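=== Given protein ===
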Amino acid sequence: MCTEDAEYGVPLPKLGILLCVLCGSLAAGCDPVRTTLQPVHLRITNSPSAQPVAGAQICLRYDYHRAVPLSQQVPSDREFWSQMPWYSGVTDNYGKADVGIKYTSLDRTIGPTPPSWTDWVSGKHYLVKVRQDQEHEEFSLVMRPGASGQGKLFTVHILEIHEPRYVKTD
């Protein structure tokens, strides 16, 4: 009676199980994930004077609390979104900044162009943090080209939101 594969020294029943597990995992595969980058061009001005603000740091993050009605909010979702990263940029001498919003998600599509549902920015509520020297401010803004959000210190103008594009991850 043959109980071992002569070449590998593995008992045949165990070899069969091992092959089934290996082949099954290869056949099933993994859910495909892809990362998109969506650049947002902004301009920050001083709210009282409307002058450009140079050297300010601007940070953006999806605003779950504004985007989802309170009756539909779930504590675990609130915690998840509160731990999401802030995407940031710094303004130039004209108050302009570029912020790249990057998301990785399940994406079973094929091709070089992301589908429209991967636009995680346009029309969505985002928290905006602006910091320059010792001054800082935070408020919510709906992300649409031409839209503005004004606080007491700073006004953020959305100049342009690019379509998402696929990027390679490290």
In short: Residues 1-8 have pLDDT under 50 and may be disordered. The chain has two domains: 1-29, 33-167. The CA atoms of residues 11 and 145 lie 66 Å apart.
